[in-house]
Amino acid sequence: MTRLFRPATTFMDAPAAADARGSRAVIIGMPFDCGTHPVRIGSRQGPAAIREQSALLRAFDPLTSRNPLAELNVVDLGDALVTPSLIEASFAAIEAAVWHAVDAGAVPVTMGGDGAVTLPQLRALHRRFPDLCVVHIDAHTDAYPIPGFNTATTFSRAVEEGVLDPGRSFHIGARGPTMVPGVFEYAEELGYTLVTMDRLMEDGMGPVFNRVRERIGGRPVYLCFDMDFFDPAVAPGVCTPTWGGASARDGLRILRRCGELNLVACDINTVSPPHDVGGMTAFLAATVLWNCLAMLANREHRPNAS
């Protein structure tokens, strides 16, 4: 049995559990950061803050009158047993925690943690879904031409390890300055389709997500949602704030377009509570997570749902 740490507070007061069996979606916290950022360390506290702010949410989807937590029999499995900055051991714990959910037939809905927590989750998902695709919504590609395992190389290493299909994967929302040159070009060299924030705004979310859906089709999708996709005006408490991001309204609308895809995992990351203002970023992240659950519940009511 995968050992997980039981939190004092669960997401939206969902039942705490040690076993994913019988649930169609489960919550798992990933309280890990690499600890290498020069001024912003704190996303290891993200899962606790998101759980705390989830008390502000209400259960029912007004568009469907459904309670996604009840429909999916959601349980909170707690946190993976990680140690911030210790990458090898923590990655193994994250992979084991996510595999526990996947092996039980549940969709893992996870809370980071910095962007490094995504790679071990991809490793777990790829074991079940060898044709896994990624939709990565983020101000940064996290696919930089630099060595090592860190927040900037998650999707570089993912291609090298073969845990996703880059030719059918998307980076959406990239913007702002980068710490090394050629970052956007490198992501495209790896095979990803890059949709910058400017391109997203110029083309519109409808046409962009039509292309996403056409390229991916019914393949399994790992949704990675970095909270710095939102503008710092609405989400200040993130690891790497970057101006020119989405409003809360537009960001949530873009998120809901992902409900058209075959989601097999949802990963919400980079909330940094020490840099948050009044818990607003954690509250928005909790709202993103609830929307992911709503999308999963709604999918089961579509005529062609598997």
TrEMBL record:
Record-level Gene Ontology MF annotations? agmatinase activity; metal ion binding
Q: Which UniProt keywords apply?
A: Hydrolase, Metal-binding
InterPro entries membership: Ureohydrolase, Ureohydrolase_dom_sf
The Gene Ontology biological process terms listed for this entry are: putrescine biosynthetic process from arginine, via agmatine
Gene3D superfamilies in the cross-refs: Ureohydrolase domain
Q: Does the keyword Metal-binding apply?
A: yes
Family listed: Belongs to the arginase family.
| Name of the molecule in the record | Agmatinase
